[in-house]
Amino acid sequence: MNGEMEKALNEQLYEEMGSFYLYLAMAADFAAKQLPGMAKWMEVQAQEEMGHAMKFYRHILERGGKVSLKALPQPQGSWDSPLAAFTAALAHEQHITSRIHALVGLARQLKDYPTEAFLQWFVTEQVEEEAQLEPIIHRLKLVGDHAPALFMLDRELAAREAEE
């Protein structure tokens, strides 16, 4: 594997681990605020991000690269509202999308076709990541500070299950 590609993939592994940490922090914040459905939704999201990190980990190793792990910074621990947290999650996913697109561009530039093929799954996944957050944000905007509606949405979000 090209050294530049190895470094970029290790950076993405770091980003995915950071995503795990961020969503776990959001889950903990929702749990502390007695919003168990939103906490569960974020826990499932955190598990998904760990899975993404492991895909990068395995790809680097399968291609003969060296995995390089570095420390993660402490994530933000509290958000002013569910809307603020989910809006931050969407902004984070948009950041990850731009990074995935840059990786695809690098793989094409380096003619690293195995990595380009590997990254196509993430291109599709990022469309889904953003698409699942947008309706939640829209509904949170509609609900505003109306507590009964917020609790109904919380209960609905509790139904999210981890994908196999």
Automatic annotation (TrEMBL):
Protein residues bound to Fe cation: E16, E49, H52, E93, Q126
Domain Ferritin-like diiron intervals: 1-144
Gene3D superfamilies linked to this entry: 1.20.1260.10
Protein name as it appears in the record: Ferritin
GO CC annotations on file: cytosol
UniProt GO BP: intracellular iron ion homeostasis; iron ion transport
A Pfam family matched in the record: Ferritin
Function: Iron-storage protein.
GO molecular function per UniProt: ferric iron binding; ferrous iron binding; ferroxidase activity; identical protein binding
UniProt family annotation: Belongs to the ferritin family. Prokaryotic subfamily.
Main localization of the protein described in the UniProt heading: cytoplasm
InterPro entries reported in the protein's UniProt record: Ferritin, Ferritin-like, Ferritin-like_diiron, Ferritin-like_SF, Ferritin_DPS_dom, Ferritin_prok
